[in-house]
Amino acid sequence: MTFDEHLDTDQIYFNHQHLPTGKSARISQFLDLIRQRSGQTNYATVKTENHVPTSAGLASSASGFAALAGAASRAAGLQLDAADLSRLARRGSGSATRSIFGGFVEWHAGHDDQSSYAEVLQDPVDWDIQMIAVVLKATKKPISSTDGMARVVATSPYYPAWITTAETDLKRMRQAIADRDLTTVGQIAETNAMRMHALNLSAEPAFNYFTADTLTAIQAVNDLRSHGINCYYTLDAGPNVKNHLCGSRYRHHYDRVTTTF
């Protein structure tokens, strides 16, 4: 991306397609933050590509805004350390605060802009854990992550309980990662994800990201586990399933997934 004194508006190209102003407003608003911080006054040309389906529950916004935070801040002359870059990326997409880093990362919720950022728990990841992303539906989901969570917060009677259990899950997850304990990591991720999706059903009006294929993929993981393969599933706000497993059992898992789908 570049800032250009000859432009009279931001020019955003997404997967080689020029975005009209209405669809690029979120990106321009993020660039405004950088212009304010850096003193940059010019509009920008941004060319970005996603290598995963967009708005399908595969963290496309997180990766995209993390990349934009890095590229745009540097183009504007800002020299941000990792923590400040994490804070900046969060302003585009909450999960982007984690995507600045590799490995296992924790997002500190904080209470203001300064205290809400991410840091690495473990990188490199030097133990036998891998992930398979099963893309079941690549089209845009019917309700965005932001809108869905806002509805849950406003209407679900179970949201306060989920906050409490999520805090407990986080403490346990830190220890499981430190112990390199795939079983506990997988169990926590699986249970936490299902509780989050249960919240969606308790919202008013209720909504659901699952498809029939989502349930089939979940059952495939359960079946593999019942046959002694140590694997677990998790889902973000979308229908696509991510599976955690030992690298040594990758082929068994891959063969089952490709046979099923």
UniProtKB/TrEMBL annotation:
UniProt domain Diphosphomevalonate decarboxylase-like N-terminal: residue ranges: 2-118
Keyword Ribonucleoprotein: no
Matching InterPro entries: GHMP_kinase_C_sf, Mev_decarb, Mev_diP_decarb, MVD-like_N, Mvd1_C, Ribosomal_Su5_D2-typ_SF, Ribsml_uS5_D2-typ_fold_subgr
Gene Ontology CC entries for this record: cytosol
Signal sequence, renumbered to the chain: none
E.C. code: 4.1.1.33
Top-level enzyme category: lyase
Domain Mvd1 C-terminal residues, every copy: 132-241
Entry annotated with the keyword Lipid metabolism: yes
Keywords of this entry: ATP-binding, Lipid biosynthesis, Lipid metabolism, Lyase, Nucleotide-binding
A GO BP entry: isopentenyl diphosphate biosynthetic process, mevalonate pathway
Domain of life, per lineage: Bacteria
GO molecular function terms noted in the UniProt entry: ATP binding; diphosphomevalonate decarboxylase activity
Family: Belongs to the diphosphomevalonate decarboxylase family.
Record's protein name: diphosphomevalonate decarboxylase
Organism: Lactiplantibacillus plantarum subsp. plantarum
